[in-house]
Amino acid sequence: MSEFKEKYGAWGIIFGATDGVGKAMAKFLAERKLNVVLVGRRTAALDELGKGLAEEYQVEYQVVTEDLSTNQAIERIIEQTKELDIGFVSYVACLSVFGPFSEHTWEDEEKMLQINIVSFTKYFHYYTKLFKEKNRGGIINIGSMSGLTGSPYIAQYGAGKSFIIKMTEAVGFEMLDTNVDIMVPILGSTITPSFLQSLPDTEAGKAALAAAMTPEECMDEIFENFGKTRSMILGDLNRKNAKEMAGQPSDQTIEFVGNLFK
């Protein structure tokens, strides 16, 4: 497992490490002996995670408490970690507000834009440039099936995930002549606290829960393919559903997705 550290460097940063996929990512890195920077809003939860990883895997950790919906958040994170040998980064952070777009507050819309687009782009630009200069590094940006089609009732979230997917795919190609691995795994229903909280108490919601992957299952599939492919949909069922969606008119797909939450 030490090969991962030798290839990418001593430290990895997880943007959105508090729970769910981010927490599983941090554990995966620690298992492979990378020291971890845990970025999120809840200091106590991040510190608890870091202490557990340090004790179990004998790695170092640093907690950076930061709200990615605020201006200059990425710049502050960079400043706090600039002395570390950063070799791997992952943007897991996201914000989704459920409900009709016309009923959201503009404050909520701005927060989503900041986290899902602006902070992401600043982060991606900085670390792509840094790793290209080093000619070494790994970047994983988490995508979502909601970014493959218009997603009613989570419209801006889906659009933001589409942005992340297409940006990562394109930049991944641009970096092919370097030793920097870039990937966007596209997740479907995944059992995380936010997923469980937003799940509708309907037959469709129960079906989504039954088909959901765990964060640990996602990690297994992600890192089995990291460095081999730049973009992939996780899970056989999700790949099947994506293939079916691609073969029908967009209106039909969007109507199906919208009716799940209507």
TrEMBL record:
| InterPro entries reported for this sequence | NAD(P)-bd_dom_sf, SDR_fam, VLCFA-Steroid_DH
Nucleus keyword on record: no
Keywords annotated in UniProt = Oxidoreductase
Q: Does the keyword Oxidoreductase apply?
A: yes
Question: Could you say which residues form the signal peptide?
Answer: none
Show the SUPFAM superfamilies listed in the entry.
NAD(P)-binding Rossmann-fold domains
Q: Report the family membership.
A: Belongs to the short-chain dehydrogenases/reductases (SDR) family.
Name of the protein this chain belongs to? SDR family NAD(P)-dependent oxidoreductase
Query: What taxonomic classification does the UniProt entry list for its organism?
Result: Bacteria, Bacillati, Bacillota, Bacilli, Lactobacillales
